[in-house]
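Problem: given the chain below (171 residues), write out its structure.
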Amino acid sequence: CGLASEAVAKLADSMLVSADLSIHLMSDKVAGDDVFNHALNVCLLSMMVGKELQLPAAQVKLLGLGALLHDVGQAEIPGHIKNKTSPLTRPEAALMREHCARGVTLGKQLGLPGEALLIIAQHHEHLDGTGYPKMLREPQLSQLARIVAVVEAYEDLCSPRNPSRACTPHE
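Solution.
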């Protein structure tokens, strides 16, 4: 947790001064490192949204930490499922949905702050209660988790598992 917090703090400090650095970092792709690229992009974009919303710097850093580790629970999901480019079967989708709870468990073991744990737990929830894992509605959702949910949806449109379905940022 300490290393991730330190890295996010440095990114946040740089990003809060110059968003241009964030855009350059997001465009630097490492071949075969899609999980890292996704986590970094969600982290940077979330912090940029937090900055635009004029969140205090400490909140932006918490947002970045939770966003960077939002999918940490996927470490316990078999690769053939989490990397699958075709539609998941019902059992595979059910297993993938467990990554939020598994991530919270890992996050607690890492000593993550409560708000970062909420991001991990709630980043697939929707305001109308149709998300998962708990089908929470808007008043029950953390503001920072809502930011990460929107940013992740955007990132998934621009960089889906199946590259042939990718949208441009403008689209």
